[in-house]
Amino acid sequence: MSEEKSLHFLEEIIEDDLKAGKYQSILTRFPPEPNGYLHIGHAKSICLNFGLGIKYGGKTNLRFDDTNPVTEETEYVESIKDDIRWLGFEWANEFYASDYFSNLYEYALVLIKKGLAYVDDLTSEEIAHLKGTPTEPGKDSPYRNRSVEENLTLFTAMKEGKYKDGEKVLRAKINMAHVNMLMRDPIIYRIKHAHHHRTGDAWCIYPMYDFAHGQSDSIEHITHSICTLEFVPHRELYDWCIENLEIFPSHQYEFARLNMTYTVMSKRKLLQLVNENFVSGWDDPRMPTLSGFRRKGYTPGSIRNFCDKIGVAKRENMIDISLLEFCLREELNASALRVMAVLEPVKLIIDNYEAGKTEIMISENGPDESMGTREVPFSKELWIEKEDFMEVPVKKWFRLAPGAMVRLKSAYIVKCESFDKDAAGHITAIHCTYLPESRSGADTSGIHVKGTIHWVSAAHAVNAEVRLYDRLFKSENPAAEEGDFKEHINPDSLHIITDAKLEPSLTTATPDHRYQFLRKGYFCVDKDSTADKPVFNRTVTLKDTWVKEAKRY
Ligand code: ATP
Ligand code: MG
Asked: Do 292 and 440 lie in a common domain?
């Protein structure tokens, strides 16, 4: 059961609209431009749009906003669909703004015939120059008063490819002195002799965002068109087009975009990271993309939960990435399979244990009994973490040290008797004796030790590569720093361990499972993994410093 939460402003608007009988049911849309992979900011928009559709028994369309032929690619379309499905949502219809190119062209003709649009021969620089400033009105273009007939002829010629890129544009005829600069005769069509990923070379004129988005909403009968705050000034033009074209009145509503610490969130910047090889690709586990998070081992549930927790606001803010990690830990703590893996191995030899003998220990798979148990082989020579031994222990050290005792998880109590060092002074082996009567589950030793450490039997260990990730940026808000955001990249964001030792149950690890390497963190199988060389990613560390903060949301 989800906890009782007050309605956010969009839910209030929708409930009022439904109560007033304005709509029988609602229809929202998620409108990505296929010019990159989706990031965690898009997840917020997806959860919001699809979530409202589900909550109010309505529907949600997926509409690719593909009106810019130059930056769009089919690879992106496929990745976007994969990511939305992975997040757990299904769209009612898959549409493309480019499907509406003919409708939009007809709409342009309607405006021309109404005397509300004209062909302008000025260059983009000249148009910008005449636009005025927020405090000064703009000036009319000398082509503003062309006749309807002349405009129809010229616009048709634009469509037929008679002009070069930039030679002419179509502008809405609104008001060059309007307080909203976007209403000062905005360009609504431009010439671009470019190949489009869906329409090929059928068109050489393309509608601008403001002449495509609202009309596409209207064609689909979208009731609530939800976008981010930067579109507030566009709303007036959105409404102007719908009103003057006399088409279905979709309405635009704006909410604050998600900004998150220690990352960048614009596709343009993410593309630079990929193209300039700062990361291995869009799905590099350090990327804030959904494919990056997925590869790193994030669950769709944790991302949905995060989007729910941050809520929907009308004011921009910066969310700490630790909150996302908190949501992830909450889920993984309850569901990840517990296993033992040694990341920085050193040998532990049990001098009084029979050589060549193997015992099968029983270890719990998780905190919940329903997760069951598994068998873990135990023998004379084990791997343990280097950091679990101290030659000269500090105060309150409960792990291994000369003369000290610890429990080996799910196995025996051992006592450290001595250790070996190589010429360079590195510890090469730790010698222990074990208490045969201290076996877990049947312990009659009467001895209580404070420390328990994990281990892997050396004879049974699986060698693996383990990739430990840290934040990709050193700065909390790299995009806001002076200079290039890439100067703030963390040079130590990836640490690769090539000789980790895993318990043998992990030979059958699959990418759909998450694992807690006891005391080390949460891990998952990476797509680079092979039978010969397993590769694991650290999804998130165990440590949780965010609980208190998270309660604020
Ligand atoms: P970017 O600036 O990262 O390229 P965009 O807004 O250009 O993002 P679109 O593909 O146009 O990307 O976005 C699709 C939808 O997702 C839009 O409705 C947009 O408002 C929303 N969206 C994009 N970024 C965020 C974000 N950080 N938080 C919430 N919603 C977002
Ligand atoms: Mg966009």
From this structure: no
User: Token pair 């149950």 is at which residue?
Assistant: 505
Q: Same domain for 94 and 145?
A: yes
Of 81, 192, 257, 347, the active-site residue reads 257
Question: Domain boundary residue among 394, 421, 454?
Answer: 454
Residue type, 137: P
Instruction: Give the predicted TM-score (pTM) of the model.
Output: 0.93
167/42 same-domain check:
yes
Q: Residue 262 domain-assigned?
A: no
Examine the fold and report which residue of 454, 488, 521 is the final residue of a domain before the chain moves on: 454
Active site residue 267: yes
447 falls within a domain: yes
In the residue annotation, 33 being an active-site residue is answered as yes
Residues 154 and 207 grouped into a single domain:
yes
- Give pLDDT tens digits along the chain (553 positions): 455 678 999 999 999 999 999 999 999 999 999 999 999 999 999 999 999 999 999 999 999 999 988 877 889 999 999 999 999 999 999 999 999 999 999 999 999 999 999 999 999 999 999 999 999 999 999 999 999 999 999 999 999 999 999 999 999 999 999 999 999 999 999 999 999 999 999 999 999 999 999 999 999 999 999 999 999 999 999 999 999 999 999 999 999 999 999 999 999 999 999 999 999 999 999 999 999 999 999 999 999 999 999 999 999 889 999 999 999 999 999 999 999 999 999 999 999 999 999 999 999 999 889 999 999 999 999 999 999 999 999 999 999 999 999 999 999 999 999 999 999 999 999 999 999 999 999 999 999 999 999 999 999 999 999 999 999 999 999 999 889 999 999 999 999 999 999 999 999 999 889 999 999 999 999 999 999 899 999 999 998 654 444 444 4
Task: Please tell me whether residue 216 adopts helix, strand or coil conformation.
Answer: helix
Q: Tell me which ligand sits closest to the C-alpha of residue 45.
A: 1
163 and 203 in a common domain: yes
Give the domain extent around 447: 341-454
- State the catalytic residue, choosing from 146, 173, 267, 304: 267
Phi, psi of 460 (to 5 degrees): -110, 0
Taking the alpha carbons at both ends of the chain, their separation in whole angstroms is 18
Co-location of 409 and 517 in the same domain: no
Q: Is 307 helix (H, G, I), strand (E, B) or coil?
A: helix
Starting from the CA of residue 231, give the closest ligand.
1
Q: How far apart are CA 53 and CA 479, in angstroms?
A: 33
- Three-state SS at 410: coil
Protein residue whose Cα sits closest to atom 4 of ligand 1 = 267
Same domain for 37 and 147, yes or no, is yes
Domain count, the chain: 3
- Identify the CA nearest to 500 among candidates 304, 346, 300, 310: 346
